[in-house]
Design brief:
Elements (H helix, E strand, L loop, with lengths): L1 H25 L17 E4 L3 E7 L2 E14 L1 H6 L4 H15 L13 H16 L4 E13 H12 L18
Antiparallel strand pairs: 1-3, 2-3, 3-4
Helix pairs in contact: 3-4
Length: 175
């Protein structure tokens, strides 16, 4: 009888020890938190509304820069913000465009897109006081000149002319 009790206590001790070892070896160590790779989780995607910025040249509006961006940021940091991220992004976008006179959207061949995106990201992070925005991606980018806007407005006002249908062939009387 004593052998059965000793064996039962031994089995319980080995089982509890192995379970404790298994849980302690698989738990994360405090200094070994693995940072998720970009684009594969851990980041939240903030999609902006369409932002329309008037481009002013020589004191008059030359056209409109229309864009929609996607920003990647950590969701915990976005949740802590008291001002909506969308509002900060829109304001910083206007500020960035007007503070960089070298950006000329009328000449698309001279725009360095990577420098534009990284400059916008750096200005956003500088304004927020920490690295919140990891990546800036362009979803839509358009520039419409004043003349293009007028042409489109005129096309909508004038209804298209009705096309005249060709006459049906007349049946021949002879066989």
């Amino acid at each position: 009888m004593v052998k059965f009790i000793v064996a039962a206590v031994w089995i319980v001790a080995v089982t509890v020890g192995s379970i404790f070892f298994a849980f302690s070896s698989t738990s994360d160590k405090p200094g070994e938190v693995e940072k998720p790779a970009p684009f594969f989780g851990g980041l939240d995607y903030v999609k902006t509304d369409v932002i329309s910025v008037p481009v002013v040249k020589n004191g008059e509006v030359a056209g409109y820069f229309i864009a929609r961006f996607v920003f990647t940021a950590e969701p915990a940091r976005i949740a802590k913000m008291s001002v909506p991220m969308q509002s900060i992004i829109t304001d910083e976008f206007f500020t960035y465009l007007y503070s960089n006179p070298l950006i000329d959207f009328t000449r698309g061949d001279r725009i360095d897109i990577n420098a534009f995106r990284s400059g916008l990201r750096d200005n956003l992070n500088k304004r927020l006081g920490e690295d919140v925005v990891h990546e800036v991606m362009m979803e839509q980018v358009d520039y419409l000149s004043k003349q293009e806007i007028r042409d489109n407005a005129m096309k909508r006002r004038i209804p298209p002319k009705a096309k005249q249908l060709p006459e049906a062939p007349k049946p021949s009387s002879g066989h």
